[in-house]
Amino acid sequence: MPREALISEKNFCVVKQWMIVVQTPVQSLEHLVSAIEKNIELVQGNYSHCMYIRSGGKTRFKSEDGAYGGQEANVRIVDSSEIILTIAYDLQLLACALSVIKYHHVHEEPTISITETWGCLSGKDDTRDNPNRYWNRQDAEAIHGEVARN
Fold first, then answer.
1. What is the spatial distance between Cα 53 and Cα 85, in angstroms, rounded to a whole number?
2. 101 burial via Cβ count (<10 Å: 0-12, 13-18, 19+)
3. Which among 94, 77, 76, 74 has a CA at the least distance from the CA of 85?
4. What's the pLDDT tens digit per position in 102-122?
5. Rounded to whole angstroms, how far apart are CA atoms 70 and 66?
6. Which structural domains are found in the chain, ordered by start?
7. Per-residue b/e over 19-57, b at no fewer than 16 CB within 10 Å?
8. 62-85 confidence digits (pLDDT tens)
9. What angle do CA 142, 55, 73 make, to 5 degrees?
């Protein structure tokens, strides 16, 4: 378990992390997800490419003077998703992640929120026979998920 853990138990620890939430139009979601996965280490224990995508939202905005497209009279609405990821609590890694997101995002002023947070990471799992683990359930295949397309 990491030394800087807030809590360190046999099967888990609680560590400080950065949580990044990015709003993006649905049309550009796959491109941004792919860029993030290729350029930012998203690791949770023995798993990589870890992020959460929340869909079904709408972004509202009105371009003002100085925006690339110029000032507009109307407020626009676009179907959007949020990408939520956590990374190690490291300023250099945070700067790298923000650079990747800013470069690959379709908006010139993307909505990106950053929060200092605590994350729970699993330690050695010696409970392989735990009936709650997905591999011990009849619906294991559905819980484990489908292969992502890139």
1. 9
2. buried
3. 94
4. 999 999 999 999 999 999 888
5. 6
6. 7-144 (3.30.70.120)
7. ebebbbbeebbeebbebbbeebebeeeeeeeebeeeeee
8. 989 998 889 999 999 999 999 999
9. 165
